[in-house]
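In this section we walk through a basic example: taking a raw amino acid sequence and producing a predicted 3D structure, encoded as discrete structure tokens. The instruction is simple. Fold the sequence below.
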Amino acid sequence: MPDNALPSAVEKRVRYFDGQFLQDQDFIDEQNYQLDREHRHNRLLHGPGIAEGLTVTSAAPNQVTVAPGTAIDSEGRQLVLAQATTVDLPGADFNDKQGVELLLSYRENAEDPQTAGGSQDFTRWLERPKLTARAPDKTYSGTEPPVLLAKVGLDAAGRVEVDSTVRSYSGLRLPGSGADPATLRATSGDRVHLAGSLTVDGSIGVGTTNHPTAKLEVVGRGGKSVDLVVNGQLKSDNEDGGLWVASDRFVGGFETNKLGFYNGDAWRLAVLPDGNVGVGTADPTAKLHVNGSVYAHNFRIGNVTIGEMELRILQRLAAGPLLTIDTPIVVKGAPLTVHYSTAPGTVSSTNWIGIYPAAETVPKTRGYTTYKYAPGADGSVTLDTGTVPGPGRYAAWYFYDNGYTTLADPVIFTVT
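The resulting token sequence is shown next.
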């Protein structure tokens, strides 16, 4: 008697030759080899689920109809439903129940008896999958692993509501070193779901059919729409990591351990690791260092609220020596205008302002690239940036009476 059972692994493939005497087992072995390789491919590289069709609808009480289609079970076998099939849901078993599962499983039957001469037996295997409705309070009694097509709910009159969101689709299985390989498959909402981790050697574009201009490009709808949601934290391992707005505004890190807001070709706000915050300066020397004017309708110091006029008077009284510039970035050779003011006790005709390479220490030598005297209690001087050795960061220092006693904090600027 021939053995029609499919082994767990088929190692031998039939080798034909001229004059060979073939028996029924030879043809069975030929089919088993092809089936084994087909099942192995489907099981290891695709996984179980719906491949096409098999949609579930209901047009009458206590009935659902399954459209033609194909699925793959966990053994790698193809479940091909050739024609639309109606499944009855008897009221005694299913009325007033929710979460009824509609399952598809493999089934084969011997068909088509031999009609010509020779031995009497069936000549074909009919592979017509079985449809089963399982109530939520029942266990699956089938012998073959099923594929879930839908869940349905019935009311007391047998009216059926179909839930297709539970459908599981076959997809692409990516074998790897782990016990649970990554899989890529569609969901009921026509979205793609990846189970596992993803590494991309190249660029990803979202919302665009053009080649991405960055490692990750998200083309959104603009306006107030939200196009990227991260329920967690974003991290950059670079000192200059951050977020660009268009091409001229930036929020993020710069230099070493600094965080700031960049706009209009300059760092407008800077936060240092020691907690110093600078407005209008990238090198704050106090907890709040403002390089410019402060305007407020009310200003509170302790329990005292100071109005706008009182605040301006206090600012003038407490200003002391001050040094400011019109722009923090200049082109080499362009004039740099520096504004200064000092207290009455430090006014001198030989107070002077010089340009030095940016440094943390107060200059004590004649290492300036250019200088000008700054007489009087306040005023402005124009310095020639063409004397600096090259592009970079520089500082303008305000000194007292031909010496190196500083009258104000330096202002940092960049020469391009």
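Looking at the output, two observations stand out. The CA atoms of residues 393 and 414 lie 4 Å apart. Residues 24-45 form the longest helix (22 residues). In the next section we compare this with other chains.
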